[in-house]
Amino acid sequence: MDDAPILDVVALSKKFGGVTAVQDVSLDVPRGGILSIIGPNGAGKTSLLNMISGFYKPDTGRIVLEGKNITHRKPSEVAQLGVARTFQNIALFSGLTVLDNLMLGRHVRMKAGVLSSVVYWGMAQKEDIAHREACEEIIEFLKLQDLRKLPTAALAYGLRKRVELGRALAVEPKVLLLDEPMGGMNQDEKEDMARYILDVNQERGVTVVLIEHDMGVVMDISDHVVVLDRGRRIAAGTPEKVQRDPKVIEAYLGTARSRSGA
Length: 262
Ligand SMILES: Nc1ncnc2c1ncn2[C@@H]1O[C@H](COP(=O)(O)OP(=O)(O)OP(=O)(O)O)[C@@H](O)[C@H]1O
Prior knowledge:
By secondary structure, this protein is an alpha/beta fold. The protein contains ten helices and ten strands. It folds into two domains: 1-83 and 207-262, P-loop containing nucleotide triphosphate hydrolases (Rossmann fold, 3-Layer(aba) Sandwich); 87-172, P-loop containing nucleotide triphosphate hydrolases (Rossmann fold). The strands form two sheets. It has a six-stranded mixed beta sheet with strand order 6-7-8-3-9-10, with helices on both faces. A hairpin with a 2-residue loop joins β4 and β5. α3 (98-105) packs parallel to α6. The structure holds adenosine-5'-triphosphate. Residues 16, 19, 21, 39, 41-47 line the site of adenosine-5'-triphosphate.
């Protein structure tokens, strides 16, 4: 049973008007690993992630999490079932502190609603303390202790990306979907983030699905790589195998050629 993929994506397709963003894409996400989705710009990577996390409804196909069909679930339900995500453009509340952003990320784990908080004040307070402790633990894990009371707007870009990772971890995910977590970072920030992703995977046992353009990082930290090009899956396998695949080389060269106008 443990060999069964934690997440199964089966023949997903999505069109936007005349544009086919994703066409008949299937992939298995093995439990406990780091799987990267790569491909040239516009290949359909974010659209695929948006479907898995419930933000886009697929036209056809299905998404199965630990044997449960989650294809038509809302994003909050998908999060509750254990799939958290980060966004390409940081999605934090910039006026709120680091700690409060994490607490908001945690709301899918909170049982006490507004009414029960009024009726069972003590119970809600106990729950709040437990959630705060969980968030403080994540803050320590990500070495954000000194910044916990600062509004995220006051933080440097790389740190905001780290808080975004913390917000997703606050969901206590089984599967973490990361959309370009190193986008726009300098080399030092990228190395830090790569280390945190490895720690999330190895120390916290979270399965990671990563979209990333930096090939060095992808090849370094991934156990599996899936390559998309123009909405289709063109290759999959270990980083070494995928790197040598002529279809993959052609997809990237083709994009470079069309960009340079050759
Ligand atoms: N909400 C949308 N409305 C219309 N078209 C969309 C939408 N989302 C994606 N697309 C189109 O679908 C195609 C795939 O886009 P997507 O963002 O999934 O690719 P990507 O591989 O993530 O690209 P990038 O690496 O540039 O982020 C593109 O042609 C894009 O313009």
